[in-house]
Amino acid sequence: MKKLLLPLFFLLNTAVYAQKQDISGKLIDAKTKIPIAGATIRLGVSDASDITDEQGVFSLRTTKKGAETIYITALGYEKQEVKLSNISKEQVFSLQPTTNQLQDVVITGAAGNPYRAISDADIRLRGVSNSQEVLRFVPGLFIGQHQGGGKAEQIFLRGFDNDHGTDISLEVDGMPINMVSHAHGQGYSDSHFIIPETIGNTTFKKGSADADKGNLVTAGYAAFHTLDALNQNVFRLEAGQFNTYRALGMVNLLSKKALENNHSWYAAGEYRYSDSYFEHAQDFKRTNFFTKYYGKISDNSTLAASASTFYSDWKASGQIPDYAVNDGTVGFFGALDPNEGGTTSRTNFNAILLTTTPENNLLKNQLYYSRYALDLHSNFTFFLDDPENGDEIRQREGRDIFGYHGSYTQDDYIGGLKLSSKVGLDVRLDATQNSELSHTINNTVLLNAIKLGDITELNSGVFLNETLHFSEKFSINAGLRFDQFYYRYYNKLDEDPTLNGAGAYKAQNNIVSPKLSFFYQPTAKTQFYLTSGKGFHSNDTRGVVAAAGLKTLPAAYTTDLGTVLKISEKLLLNAAVWQIHLNNEYVYSGDGGSVDFSGKTRRIGFDLSARYQSMPAIYLDADLNYAHGRALGEPEGENYIPLAPVWSSSAGITYMSKTGLNGSLRYRYLGDRPANEDFSLTAAGYFVTDLVLNYTTKRYEIGLTVNNLFDVKWKETQFETLTKLRNRGAVNSIAFTPGTKFAALAHVSYLF
Predict the structure, then answer these.
(1) Average pLDDT, the chain
(2) Is residue 324 in some structural domain?
């Protein structure tokens, strides 16, 4: 392994070969002086094009005679047309911010991400109205909360019940959100430490076709990017029903002169309290703090360094069975165990150094660290296992995460063909202390320990990604990734039935993941793509060591065939048919302290997204998704995948008036789906509508947010669960957490 990593590390920090480009430059925001990433630069009408990198740098080579102009387009900025004769070497272009318009979204195969056009339009034109809206920017992604606002949401995407993140990777500024070998479940992703107003843009992609993305990327991934600089300071107060309150502050810590000299530093903080809509008050409290420095530390290097801390505690109503509601034992919004709830915290440090070489290649070095803790109390079965004391469980852990990401990106030419190369290294170490699953009473009294030990999990991954541009119309992307895992579990329980006594247990495994994609763009407004790749999700260390590492790193094979169409300046479409084949859905079940095996599965489906801006003030978006998932090798009628979404849809209309009035009306629909393998139980679907109204000026904003505008009664999360109430028999039924009632929240913001 060392023989492989040492030459790769050398490549990460050395330009092995390079070829000077004909045209190169850099784009910056004229107001903040921050580089503009993801902008499109096109030479002539249909000649060479490029996408600016994280440093705002682009480079082009003339492939046709007669081109005299480059066209610069970036959503949210004024377009520029520049004569080649007026461009100097390494010129810096300052783009003036302007009103966001769908007509400025450009389709290009250069980015290698067919979802880029949709994501650019949504984050700029829809805006972020609340913290949950952050995840919903991924078309077809649905979330559900089933134990109060302090617990990570359950995630649904492409026919997957991802639990809290088993088959989707989430990250912020390159730092992973997912927790591997977590006390509550594999891939647990609590994103509540992100202050939504600090998010500048979101990148997402479905499937596992990207070589630079590794563990947990089967259904897809979403990457959030925080603002490098604030356009203005903000103080915001919110108040609403159910004793809901929130305070937010975001302020620049450096002067305008420092910003002009390419140095930005800001801080953001929020506090939130709510009793929520349940009969049992949640007493939910959350505190967030985030600060970020972004600056030019040399002629060719920038540093982005951030720190954040988060703490939350709450009481939860938990899941209640259908039969208990139907017979009047408990109300629809009631609770059967008032002791559910928990506390959680996370502190992060993240530093990214970007360096542009003299040949306009990009070197990235990133270091991050997180300190995390969770203490969670749940009761899913009530008195099924212990008729006297009840079935309350405690899941607890402390965790340190250390990580490094390095990559080197360069463009070269083979004859007249452009070759874009990226090589990289990922290293992540998770170390938990006292990962615990216990049977308790009243959150404090320990009856017996089920799992207790320390986990050490190391994941090292190397990748190579090559894109060969045969022309502006056709390109091929090929990638290869290798991941190595080392696991160690120090068991502190002699009586653990899955292991042979207390002590240290070790295992290791690895996986090779090839990728191959094709992009064809016959016109400037039409793109077709075929993306494919092998991905995987790792499994909990406690299950891996029990199986001695065997068959615990199952592969996922994904394929997408789709198109992106800019039918007119006002209409953007993305459509795809897809399939995902898993060798083994094999996931540690934190709630039961065991490993569940469900065998091979296959999912097929289609996604359709449309974005339409009929006039500058009105933006419409709509997503329709279908997934057909089945377990392979099981009898017909007994091969359903529990809780796998089938039909889902979301849509909205956003209004942005020059008079200051703005807002949105949105719905989300999740259809009925099987709750168990034979579909004898149904997880009921829902249709919920939300409303946002604001009046915005240069100095202040007042607004109103209404969740569940029509006050429908709906179930946010549902599970097949065998439960038993005190002095009654056991019943297998749907257990659910109710969705929000009609809930209005007003806010006022001061902008300066």
Answers:
(1) 88
(2) yes
